[in-house]
Sequence to fold (98 residues):
Amino acid sequence: MGMIYGSNNYTADGRRKKKSSTKRARSVIKRVSSNAPEPYRRQTSEYRSAPDTTGVAPRLHTMYYTGTLVKGIGTMHKSNAVPVINEEEMKDLARMRR
Fold:
């Protein structure tokens, strides 16, 4: 059953119709020149700010993992990967799985 009273912008289902594929000519907006006077700015001498050549702090060294702390990766529950640091944690993880 279709709509009795409705808009031409919507279909009988209620979906919005697409606009026409042909482009319409757009009106060109012209620039308006103002008759307002330029704002007054007093003559002052400009002072340069201090040169920013020196750094504030030394550069940090890039951090990377050396591979000595974590012994491996264990599975605690389903597919939950847990880093294993020592033998105690390995045994604890093995007991928790059961």
Summary: The longest strand covers residues 72-75. The beta strands are 72-75, 81-84.
